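Why should sequence recovery work at all? Because a backbone constrains its sequence more than one might expect. Tight turns favour small or flexible residues, buried strands favour hydrophobic ones, and helices have their own preferences. The token representation captures these environments compactly. In the example below, the structure is given first.
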């Protein structure tokens, strides 16, 4: 089981590093949001964390991890189209190990993507090295693991490669915009606060904000507990739905 999980993890990581266009192309959208919103609204939005660019920096990192992790689920559909998934499913290994390998591979690549954005924001000067960097990486890992598992769960029920990006955009855009990544929760209307607190990504963003900036609207232990619980739920759901794929 462990060897199959490792091989599939290694396959995902190697595919990521061999696709330079994917690696650098996926940096464009987070950086566009950062420059367009960070500098465009810096004189309009007031925050308790200093500059607005520093405030949204953890949200931009979370955005990069979110998009990369969720869309890694398309690899399941891609493998199904080209027959690799069928060959994997009939192999004498458990489907759980296959799903875990895919999940860990997608989570790893999304964490690398988040680290690249983090380094770029350090170079720009919007973030500074602090003792909370390890905690920030932990939240990045939890976001990557949770939403990669969610992407695989959804991909396990979809066979249309063209339909997957449309469905995922419909799902992840509200998740991102309603996570408090771009606006302070303390200034949000009550109805919007309720929706935001129901969003699991909110706890990842606020946890990273505490780790990198030293303050957040939600206790970091609460963020860690909620995001960890959501991650476990998504892994179990992904394993259940992946186990029902017909070979």
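From this structural description, the recovered sequence reads:
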């Amino acid at each position: 089981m462990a060897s199959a999980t490792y091989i599939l993890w290694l396959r995902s990581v190697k595919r990521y590093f061999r696709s330079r266009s994917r690696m650098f192309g996926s940096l464009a959208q987070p950086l566009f949001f950062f420059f367009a919103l960070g500098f465009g609204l810096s004189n309009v939005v007031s925050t308790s964390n200093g500059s607005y660019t520093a405030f949204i920096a953890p949200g931009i990192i979370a955005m990069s991890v979110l998009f990369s992790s969720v869309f890694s689920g398309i690899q399941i559909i891609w493998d199904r189209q080209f027959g690799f998934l069928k060959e994997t499913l009939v192999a004498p290994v458990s489907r759980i190990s296959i799903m875990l390998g895919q999940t860990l591979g997608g989570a790893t690549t999304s964490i690398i993507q988040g680290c690249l954005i983090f380094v770029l924001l350090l170079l720009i000067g919007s973030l500074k090295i602090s003792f909370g960097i390890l905690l920030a990486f932990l939240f990045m890992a939890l976001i990557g693991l949770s939403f990669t598992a969610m992407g695989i769960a959804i991909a396990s029920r979809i066979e249309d490669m063209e339909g997957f990006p449309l469905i995922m955009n419909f799902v992840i855009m509200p998740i991102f915009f309603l996570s408090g990544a771009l606006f302070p929760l303390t200034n949000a209307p009550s109805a919007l606060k309720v929706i935001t607190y129901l969003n699991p990504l909110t706890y990842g963003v606020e946890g990273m904000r505490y780790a990198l900036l030293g303050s957040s609207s939600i206790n970091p232990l609460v963020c860690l507990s909620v995001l960890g619980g959501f991650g476990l739920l998504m892994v179990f759901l992904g394993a259940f739905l992946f186990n029902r794929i017909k070979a």
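A few observations help interpret the result. The chain has a mean pLDDT of 84.
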